[in-house]
């Protein structure tokens, strides 16, 4: 009897199929975080017409400009907890499922689409360039202290916004090499031009001097954010959702779960050390009227640190 009453999905009424797709579609109602492996830039070959045709189901032309992700040694899908993977399969499952997501995203003027190849499979995903956070996972030999415009969804104009507003980099213990309180400015300057994530991060901070770089966060997986961390009245409690995890802003060491603190240098210690370089974070800038003004950047105050909340994945601490 069970076999006789079973219906193939394609044989179900269209209204029921649509209801099923809508029930499983991930709603991007909250800010999301996407982890993007980056080596040296090499673009994959795709059939752009096929991808655009798949996404532009309602004829709006919204999906004409699909960003192709660079080819990397690391997988864009395996062992990746990006939010873009939550509903990525629905984009290519069939036209019905893609239409459900198109209708969800259609109201947003800040939705951008991307595609990547993983093995022999092509994936499609979306990001909200105003609200989502892109974490660039640069390989240690990738030189990205310039040429940022080739990075995925990079912002090339401020208005109208053409790319991502905020990015992130993952801090790890290797960043501590050569870094200490009161270090020489020349040493910090040299680190800005080194390959890998630390050099990229420092080059972004340098880019703030001429407003050429976006806002940036540091992610520290070696610590955990206290579940009931103090919240300052009037400030936003920033949280970004990934696949099964929540990354929240840690206001300071008081927000860190004590059992995750070690004697090693964490992201807060790193920001304190580079901020201690005398005279390095002060500069002059002249506006269009010819008026000069002094600026000062305090890395500890300016760079938000993100960590996973302590009730999530505590057992995996130190194994990530």
From TrEMBL:
Highest taxon of source: Eukaryota
One Pfam family linked to the record: 2EXR
InterPro entries in the cross-refs: 2EXR (IPR045518)
2EXR domain ranges (all copies): 6-107
Protein name (record): 2EXR domain-containing protein
């Amino acid at each position: 009897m069970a076999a006789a009453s079973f219906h193939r999905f394609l044989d179900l009424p269209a209204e029921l199929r649509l209801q099923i797709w809508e029930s499983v579609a991930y709603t991007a109602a909250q800010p999301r975080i996407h982890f993007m492996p980056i080596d040296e830039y090499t673009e994959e070959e795709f059939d752009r017409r096929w991808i655009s045709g798949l996404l532009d189901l309602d004829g709006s032309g919204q999906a004409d400009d699909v960003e192709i992700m660079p080819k990397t040694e690391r997988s864009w899908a395996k062992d990746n907890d990006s939010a873009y993977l939550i509903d990525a399969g629905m984009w290519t499952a069939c036209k019905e499922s893609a239409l459900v997501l198109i209708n969800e995203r259609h109201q947003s003027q800040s939705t951008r689409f991307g595609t990547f190849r993983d093995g022999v499979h092509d994936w499609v995903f979306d990001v909200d360039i105003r609200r989502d956070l892109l974490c660039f996972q640069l390989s240690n030999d990738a030189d990205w202290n310039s040429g940022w415009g080739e990075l995925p969804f990079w912002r090339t104009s401020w208005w109208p916004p053409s790319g991502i507003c905020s990015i992130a980099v993952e801090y790890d213990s290797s960043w501590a090499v050569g870094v200490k309180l009161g270090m020489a400015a020349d040493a910090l300057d040299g680190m800005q031009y080194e390959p890998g994530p630390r050099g990229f991060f420092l080059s972004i901070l340098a880019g703030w001097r001429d407003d050429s770089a976006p806002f940036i966060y540091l992610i520290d997986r070696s610590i955990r954010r206290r579940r009931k961390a103090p919240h300052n009245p009037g400030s936003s409690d920033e949280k970004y959702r990934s696949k099964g995890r929540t990354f929240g802003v840690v206001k300071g060491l008081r927000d860190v779960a004590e059992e995750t603190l070690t004697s090693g240098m964490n992201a807060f210690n790193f920001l304190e050390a580079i901020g201690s370089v005398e005279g390095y974070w002060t500069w002059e800038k002249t506006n269009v009227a010819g008026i000069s003004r002094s600026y000062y950047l305090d890395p500890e105050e300016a760079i938000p640190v993100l960590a996973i909340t302590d009730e999530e994945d505590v057992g995996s601490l130190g194994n990530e």
